[in-house]
TrEMBL record:
Signal peptide: none annotated. It comes from the Bacteria. The keyword Membrane applies. This is Quinol:cytochrome C oxidoreductase. The chain crosses the membrane at residues 12-35, 41-65, 86-107, 134-152, 173-195, 207-229, 249-270, 290-309, 321-341, 347-369. Keywords: Membrane, Transmembrane, Transmembrane helix.
Length: 393
């Protein structure tokens, strides 16, 4: 019998703390922007890419769960929906990027590019890389993400007050049909917002690289949120089997990320073309320490940490690893953005930390606020009891 607290009424301190972090980070960004100009925009872009990849990664995981009609994630579904519930905030968060587009992206002013060959390549890409189509595509990305997440959340919450069995076909149909456009929007957003920082460079694996990191980060965020709710006295029926399932996914997608990262580098290195090597050249010279940290922190450390069976079963040991993965995902975004725009360092600027505090604080406050007053589990879902008994059947 379900003994979970029915309504989530906590989170007041998280909302206040997140709001204060947002205010402090935003003030620091504004002050830093006056003093350092474009560095503030790049710091914000890195933090924003980190947040959006987590939110869309969470949406993709939620859609996979529905498409497969998986049972055990039902116990955690409201937490996943809490992550995707932050997506409306991402639309507002896009405003600074829209305002600073000419400062952030060199393709907006090809005549200012000093290298003649690069300028020539950028001019050939202008039918795609121009401000009008950039904003139209961003509108489409957010439209796809927000539309699908809105209906999945609405149907789920409606099921809290009435039997939800009739909505399961809707969940499955929308998720199965929506996964391709969501994934394509995710891929092209990575191309537009991150890869175009180096407009002469391209990689067909870049979108997959960003997806792999975002999906892995979303799983880590799910572990931390679940552990936090349990420590607050909620989700008490979530057991070691659920954490073990999440731990296996963390390990699997840590390996998947490393596979994508290695083969993107290997294929570009083996072809040895100057315009392709332009992405890795500064990352192997001025930003070599950051590259080493990304390789070790995103793969080597979590891979060996997640190998033991009992580590994945215990939330007290899995949560610190998840926190590390979440932090390293931000470091990875720094690695993607900063070497393209900050040729002489520093590797990490104080503005980067301020942007992370600002974006992370806003997301924490908004996401927690949207969870309040809602049941912490989809209480009328016919699969809920089976989800709680996962591992003991």
């Amino acid at each position: 019998m379900n003994t979970e607290p029915s309504i989530f009424t906590g989170g007041g301190r998280l909302i206040l703390g997140g709001f204060l972090a947002f205010v402090v980070g935003a003030i620091a960004l504004v002050v830093g922007g006056v003093a350092h100009g474009r560095d503030a925009f790049y710091a914000y872009l890195s933090a924003y890419a980190w947040l959006v990849s987590l939110l869309v990664g969470g949406l993709i995981f939620l859609m996979i769960v529905h498409a497969m009609d998986a049972k055990w994630p039902v116990a955690l579904r409201r937490v996943i929906e809490g992550v995707t519930g932050v997506l409306p905030l991402a639309v507002i968060g896009f405003i600074p990027i829209a305002v600073g587009i000419t400062t952030i992206y060199p393709w907006t002013s090809p005549s200012t590019i000093h290298e003649h060959e690069v300028q020539h390549l950028v001019e050939h890409k202008l039918p795609y890389l121009n401000t009008s189509s950039f904003f139209v595509r961003a509108f489409l990305y957010f439209g796809v993400w927000l539309g699908i997440s809105y209906f999945l959340r609405r149907w789920s919450l409606r099921g809290d007050w009435a039997p939800a069995a009739t909505d399961k076909p809707r969940f499955r149909a929308l998720s199965a049909l929506g996964l391709p456009p969501v994934a394509l929007a995710f891929t092209f957003a990575g191309v537009d917002w991150l890869m175009s920082l180096t407009p002469a460079w391209y990689s067909t694996m870049f979108g997959v690289y960003w997806f792999a990191g975002g999906f892995l980060g979303a799983l880590a965020l799910l572990v931390l949120a679940t552990y936090g709710l349990q420590r607050a006295g909620m989700l008490t029926r979530v057991g070691s089997s659920h954490y073990y399932a999440l731990g296996r996914l963390l390990l699997a997608f840590t390996i998947f990320w490393a596979y994508i990262a290695y083969f993107q580098f290997f294929l570009i290195w083996i072809t040895n073309k100057p315009h392709e090597a332009s992405f890795y050249a500064p990352r192997m010279r001025e930003f070599a320490p950051l590259s080493i940290l990304v390789a070790a922190g995103r793969f080597v450390i979590p891979f060996f940490a997640l190998l033991p069976y009992r580590v994945k079963q215990q939330p007290s040991t899995l949560a610190p690893i998840a926190l590390w993965i979440l932090f390293m995902h931000w470091v990875d975004m720094e690695w993607l953005v900063m070497p393209s725009v900050r040729a002489e360092g520093p590797i990490v600027h104080w503005l980067d930390v301020a942007a992370l505090v600002c974006v992370g604080g806003a997301a924490l406050a908004f996401g927690t606020f949207r969870l309040r007053g809602r049941p912490i589990v989809p209480k009328n879902d016919t699969s809920l009891e089976a989800a709680f008994r996962y591992g003991s059947l």
